[in-house]
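Input structure tokens:
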């Protein structure tokens, strides 16, 4: 993979991870300090301006990281079954995270975050190699 003008994969992964971390830290601001809800989503869920900033940082970092992983997949040489399992875990995790906003069972986000986290913890270190 050409490195010209793109920067090393490791630096890009670190930069994307820092954006994700910044987004998570902004989203951890207590609800009482966020201000008023600008966009109500469901009972008990809504976006404030602080949530919008955190979600934007998280989306930018996550998308950048996803692009890096997808571009490096041919170089990772993962067996098809492992690749399918990781894709299934990541998709299930994202689906449960989204569904937790709209469902009555609030704690689905923890299950979704865990399954997505497993896929990320396997793929990101492999992507940052070399």
């Amino acid at each position: 993979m050409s490195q010209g003008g793109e920067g090393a994969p490791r630096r890009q992964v670190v930069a994307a991870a820092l954006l994700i971390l910044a987004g998570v830290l902004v989203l951890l601001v207590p609800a009482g300090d966020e201000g008023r809800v600008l966009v109500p989503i469901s009972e008990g869920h809504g976006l404030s301006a602080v949530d919008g900033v955190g979600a934007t940082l998280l989306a930018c970092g996550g998308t950048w990281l996803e692009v890096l992983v997808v571009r490096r997949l041919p170089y990772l040489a993962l067996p098809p079954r492992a690749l399918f399992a990781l894709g299934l875990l990541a998709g299930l995790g994202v689906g449960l995270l989204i569904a937790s906003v709209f469902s009555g069972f609030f704690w689905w986000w923890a299950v979704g975050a865990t399954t997505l986290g497993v896929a990320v913890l396997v793929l990101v270190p492999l992507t940052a190699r070399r």
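The chain is about 70% helix and 5% strand. The longest helix spans residues 49-76.
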